Predict the structure.
Amino acid sequence: MANLEDSFLADLEDLSDNDNENLDEDNGDAENMEEDVNGDLADIEALNYDDLDSVSKLQKTQRYTDIMKKVEDALEKGSDMSIQNQAMVLEDDPEYQLIVECNTLSVDIENEIVIIHNFIRDKYRLKFPELESLVHHPIDYARVVKRIGNEVDLTLVDLEGLLPSAIIMVVSVTASTTSGKPLPENTLQKTIEACDRALTLDASKKKVLDFVESRMGYIAPNLSAIVGSAVAAKLMGTAGGLTSLAKMPACNVQLLGAKKKNLAGFSTATSQFRVGYIEQTEVFQTTPPGLKMRACRLLAAKSTLAARVDSIRGDPSGKQGRMYREEIRKKIEKWQEPPPAKQPKPLPVPDSEPKKKRGGRRLRKMKERYAITDMRKLANRMQFGVPEESSLGDGLGEGYGMLGQAGNGKLRVSVGQSKLAAKVAKKGKDKQYSSGGATSGLTSSLAFTPVQGIDLIDPQADANRLGSGSQSTYFSETGTFSKIKRT
């Protein structure tokens, strides 16, 4: 049996063999990577940016030629769709396959136009460096460059029909102060050739879109019912097919075909930003300016739903798209309705329930207790043409109303006793407080004298001595007048 040390040594030998194999593999991969990198660098070095054919290769591909030939043949035949094609599965239809290829080709044409646009900008930047910041669209830029050429004075160049009037004015003023110089003849020739190629690609793209538009009634009937065949074809071409359009959110569908607008310093209040091909629809054009952005968002949302219905062939008749269009129209009409007139508020329903408090002695007493007095009535009244007296004088402070205006200027008023007060006084008068001959509790048997201080006396002594009732000191029934004798 092998001991523990022998097993460890065997494991170490296995590890060393594996490491050597991994090192050999890594060396082989590194050699292959170096070969690939060297090959790529060779391709990059072989690429000549001065040659237009090495930059733009789409027009010379067999795929571009075949698709354009099929599109031209289909446009010559017309857009008659046979009945048996309607029953065919959409993915198996050769014409739908051609439409999908056209959508892919339109995207490739867009990318190729961008590449050619960069080539033109690099070459023409020496002549007019400010032009690329004034004209952003590649096709417009190519047309302007082809029209201007090496001309120094732009007043001799007619740019009408190529650019808006405001942009033409800005381009003319900027060209008079530009720091550019005329291009050499060979560079100018390459630039003009690139412009012609960009315009040719743009014309090919229009043919592809025309073909797709002529078949949109069959391919996407619901989407065409909402935005029209032309706009539907442009949306599909930009998105890269009906399936790609169906997977796209509505906020991105709204931006398909949007261009960066150069207002040349003018106001942006009336310009429509973040709106693409949807602004070319009939619904958008007939919407009032204040509601156009809301209508654009609504159109984008419904177009996305219609594209999803068309992608699964849910409604080949286009009925769902027409329902969406009618819904959009009703919503826009609802937005334009004036607000409802403010209705007069009716009076509340009178309270016909019986009152919880009934009349009686307690209620009458409470009313008499809280009734307004004659003095307060006079203070609340004012006599016409007579100024009232006030606490601070000259109309300042609290006014006294008609108090004191009947007499000599003093605030006098005869206060009449209320019925309640009269009853209380009468009841108190009739009440007897006698205690049957008992001594009052307030009577004291202590007297304070200046001689002895506190003296104890009998309180009943004076009463017995003076008498009570008709007896008195001066008029007594038994007493007589005293006669004083004179001496």
Q: What stands out?
A: The two ends are 182 Å apart (CA to CA). The CA atoms of residues 142 and 195 lie 5 Å apart. The longest strand covers residues 446-449. Residues 29-47, 81-85, 407-411, 467-471 have pLDDT under 50 and may be disordered.
